[in-house]
Amino acid sequence: MQFLIDNFDLFWDAFLTTLSLSLLACLVALVLGTLLAAMRVSPIAPLRGLATFYVETFRNTPLTVVFFFMIFGLPQIDFVIGFFTGAVLSVGLYTAAFVCEALRSGINSVSPGQAEAARALGLTFGQSLREVVLPQAFRTVVPPLGNVLIAMVKNTSIAAGFSVSELSSLLPRLVNASAGDLTAILVGVVVGYMIITLPSALAVHRIERRVAILR
Amino acid sequence: MTTPVLFDVQGPRARARARVGSAIGAVLVLAIIVFVLLRLGGNGQLEPERWAILFDPASGVPQALGRALVRTLQVAAVAMVLATLLGLLLAVGRLSDHRWVRVPVSAVIEFFRAIPLLVVIFALYFVLPKYGVRLSTFTALTGGLVLYNMAVLAEIFRAGILSIDKGQREAGFGLGLRKSQVMTLILLPQATRRMLPVLVAQLVVLLKDTSLGFIISYLELLRQARGLVEYFNSLFGDRYTFQLYVAAGLIYILINVLLSMLARYTERRTNRAGRKAVTAEPADQMGAGAGAP
Predict the structure, then answer these.
(1) Is the pLDDT higher at A101 or at B44?
(2) What count of other Cβ atoms lies within 10 Å of the Cβ of residue A127?
(3) Which structural domain range is residue B217 located in?
């Protein structure tokens, strides 16, 4: 316990790094993922193709490989980005593919009658998606989307392998540097993640209860 | 599966607009590709000689990458088998009627689901040695993958077992079967068929996660590529870096695409079988199609 108090600054900095990394990546993933989902159900075939290609590529690429290209590949085309920016982009771009899939499964779960009714009322593609289908899709999609985002928070740990000093990176650093209380280090790191994931899981649960539609 | 009810069959004007849009999009994508290729070419990364090293057995690169691939698959195979078996045990344990089994098993599952896989691997690799247990990178990586995925798989199995109609269980008891018999003869066979797509999807995730071995220096594909890069850099300078990384990345993507195709195949098969069953409920209710990243 004493060890945790002594090194509180270190843990706090690492925690903030993980938190900001998660929030920024979450933003990238949600925006891009929604866009991709809209593209995947759009009437324009090339858009569908492009989005499908994106999703299939990123879903089948290990996040470590995405990091790899971001950190070691981009400099080859003269883009040099910092480790933190690289981490945000890697996690965000990777998670966007999963957000898209979650949203799409939500869109598919809206009963076809709803879309047919919207079309029968004369709404355009954009209108029926915005006014009828997506609001319902977002509701059914709360639990899977929540799972994807919580998994994303845990995935930010991979940034530890790429010179971002976030929570997980404390483990090898502190364990090797000090003969300090090992259990305390482990507990500190685990608790750091739980401070982010547990409230998120709770929030997802509450949102789900509030907006769920019974079918 | 798109929802075609969302839009009408397009008329001539909409088609024309779509064509213009696609053309602009295609030009944009092409521009990006050309830009990347030009930059790469400008840096001399596209010289055939630089890529030839990947296929030239004399350089030792194909053999090294091949061995790395085998090491990757070894970890994945061992971890898949162990995680599936332990996951099944945990799932049954969590559904047990006995509190003293259910509570600790639930705690184990929730604990490992809540912490990042990398932290588990770090704990095995960096923390355990301080207590006198020294694990090889192989054991630490496999162990981490097993501990984490058994918890995830346990939840998948549990969801599958719970999704079976209650009447099946009751009918089993009505026939005078024991609890273990109901589980093994009635529930598990039906649950397995339902959760197979989600199960395979999670195994793809496991295979992807073997790349974490890179971070603890297990010589899987990425770490091997890094090693080769360092070796070649010492001989020729920064000459083959990009090519080796691309090769390692592509091999990873390729094996994952193959496994994903297998996953989709099993999904199609189970869907076909599901339609014949009386209790037809869409299988993606539990996995929501996306799976956890």
Answers:
(1) A101
(2) 14
(3) 65-287
Tokens of B14: 């909409």
The pTM score is 0.82
pLDDT in tens, A149-178: 888 998 898 888 888 888 888 887 777 776
Number of domains in chain B: 1
CA distance, residue B207 to nearest chain A CA (Å): 8
**B49 located within any domain:** no
**A193 and B291: CB-CB below 8 Å?**
no
Q: Which domains does chain A possess?
A: 19-165 (1.10.3720.10)
pLDDT tens-place string over residues B113-128 = 888 898 899 888 888 8
The answer to whether B182 and B173 are in contact (CB under 8 A) is yes
CATH of the domain at B227: 1.10.3720.10
Which residues of B are less than 8 Å from A110 in CB distance? Answer: 3
- On whether any CB of chain B is under 8 Å from the CB of A48, the answer is yes
Task: Evaluate whether residue B293 is within a structural domain.
Answer: no
| Inter-chain touch A95–B293, beta carbons under 8 Å | yes
| Arithmetic mean of pLDDT, A75-88 | 84
The CA-CA-CA angle for residues B60, B66, B68, to 5°, reads: 100
Residue A113 CB burial class (10 angstroms; 0-12, 13-18, ≥19):
exposed
Instruction: Give how far A130 is from chain B: nearest CA, Å.
Output: 11
* B143 domain-assigned: yes
> In Å, what is the CA distance from A106 to each residue of A111, A133, A134, B272?
10, 9, 8, 22
Spatial neighbors of B185 by CB under 8 A, at least 6 apart, are B172, B177
> How far apart are the C-alpha atoms of A27 and B197, rounded to whole Å?
29
Enumerate the H helices of A156-181 as residue ranges.
170-177
> Tell me: the pLDDT tens digits for B166-201?
899 899 999 999 988 898 888 888 888 888 878 888
State which amino acid sits at residue A143.
Answer: P
Mean pLDDT value of segment B38-57:
76
- Does a structural domain hold residue B39? no
Q: How many helices (H) and strands (E) does chain A have?
A: 11, 0
Tokens, residue B270: 């189970």
At residue B272 the predicted structure's pLDDT band, cuts being 50, 70 and 90, is low
Alpha-carbon gap, residue A212 to A66, rounded angstroms: 35
Residues of chain A numbered 157-176 and touching chain B (CB < 8 Å): 157-158, 160-161, 167-168, 171-172, 175-176
| Pairs of residues, one from chain A and one from chain B, whose beta carbons lie less than 8 Å apart | 189
